[in-house]
Records
---
Amino acid sequence: KAGVTQTPRYLIKTRGQQVTLSCSPISGHRSVSWYQQTPGQGLQFLFEYFSETQRNKGNFPGRFSGRQFSNSRSEMNVSTLELGDSALYLCASSLETGVADTQYFGPGTRLTVL
Amino acid sequence: AQSVAQPEDQVNVAEGNPLTVKCTYSVSGNPYLFWYVQYPNRGLQFLLKYITGDNLVKGSYGFEAEFNKSQTSFHLKKPSALVSDSALYFCAVSGANNDMRFGAGTRLTVKP
């Protein structure tokens, strides 16, 4: 089975621009979560989508948004980019809803904001 | 609120020696605990998880973890370290809403 894929792998943007990242979950997985990883803040939960609905959201500003399509693929959007948005953005998918589902991570998208 | 702590930023061991990467947790309710490993420029790879049952959980690549309720710990262990085990290790706890909270990570270096 193919793993979680994320595109693009690397992005360079300038402040004020917006960006869209894409994530394709493992086939059959219905839940997709997004995380931001930075050296200073570590791994932080952004949001989770299930059946095209955002179920959970972390403590990030409204500039960070996402959506999920009927085939479970997900996109994440960051508007009005700031220098501090430079990070590795990780997507993870899991098979079922509920607690203690194992999340499987993609390789990440490295976003650099200049 | 659910949280985990990894008290060591860095762990160094010699190849062939046993290794331990420490994790303590704070949860309300049942703890659902995970270990992941991250290699440079890669995503996180799942190693093992504890939901319930035996306190010793066996995972991938020869790793195991010991759940200790009285000490609220979930330490990752391996009997004999390999140089290829050198990586960043994360402990995590799964919240009631399926949001995963990660520790700060521990960098393991295994020297030949």
---
Amino acid sequence: KAGVTQTPRYLIKTRGQQVTLSCSPISGHRSVSWYQQTPGQGLQFLFEYFSETQRNKGNFPGRFSGRQFSNSRSEMNVSTLELGDSALYLCASGTGGALSGELFFGEGSRLTVL
Amino acid sequence: GENVEQHPSTLSVQEGDSAVIKCTYSDSASNYFPWYKQELGKRPQLIIDIRSNVGEKKDQRIAVTLNKTAKHFSLHITETQPEDSAVYFCAASIRKAEYGGATNKLIFGTGTLLAVQP
């Protein structure tokens, strides 16, 4: 069974640009969550999608958005990039929501904003 | 609140010693508490989890204890080995009530860098 796949793995952008990251969950998983990982801040919850609906969101500004497609693949978008958006963005898939057990993480997309 | 505090941020132990990492949470409705291990350059992976209906769970050298009254839970690793060196994240489910039901999200602590010295 293929694991969670994230693309691109690395990308460099400049301030003011926008970026789209993609996540393909494990086959059969309908839940996809996104996390931002920075040194010292751990894994900060961005949002969770389940069956194409955003079910939960974290405390990030509206520049951060996402969506999920009918095949459960998910994308997240960050507009008007700021230096502080530089981070590793991880997505995780699961069979249900936060109480459903193990989250399977992708390897992440490392974003550098110059 | 949606806070999960984790301590210590770094922990260095000698091989064979025990390691303990502690987390506290603020939402009294939290009822699921997983622990993830992230080795350098790799993705986080679940190592153990506990639900609120039990106070302790063990899996070989690792164990998790939960004190719901005090709202804290801990990870215990015994007989540590160099391959236990990694960043460990605790997490707690945060419940959001909404019309027609409730949803839950997983909030992580800030992580503990464990270094096991051979």
